[in-house]
Design a protein that fits this description.
Layout: H1 3-29, H2 46-68, H3 85-105
Helix pairs in contact: 2-3
């Protein structure tokens, strides 16, 4: 065998392997994930879930504090920094749940005012 045949065969095999690897990786990328979409069809990422969970916890604490202090229902986010929409939605859900829960348990109406 001469050197030219070896180079041509090696180059052909390398090109074929690169094609197969690229084809395989794109096939795996198209497999749908089970939990990658939210109920409203948005792509759900870890950051969005983290922001919503953080907002829910902050809202829950604020709602409990307001209900126990006999303040009116006011789920407004008081933060100077810009917060995401996921944080705001989580905050409002947490605030409403805590306010309803703690206002009812203390016998002060239906959880939406005193």
């Amino acid at each position: 065998m001469n050197i030219r045949t070896i180079k041509t065969t090696g180059f052909s095999l390398t090109l074929a392997m690169a094609f197969l690897v690229a084809l395989g990786s794109s096939a795996f990328a198209q497999v749908p994930q089970r939990f990658d979409r939210d109920r409203d069809g948005r792509v759900d990422s870890r950051r969005e879930r983290f922001e919503e969970r953080k907002g829910f916890n902050d809202g829950f604490a604020a709602g409990r504090r307001d209900a126990l202090a006999h303040r009116r229902f006011n789920p407004v986010v008081y933060y100077i920094r810009a917060v995401s929409n996921d944080y705001r939605q989580g905050y409002q859900r947490g605030y409403a749940q805590a306010y309803r829960q703690f206002a009812k348990n203390r016998g002060y109406g239906h959880g939406f005012g005193y």
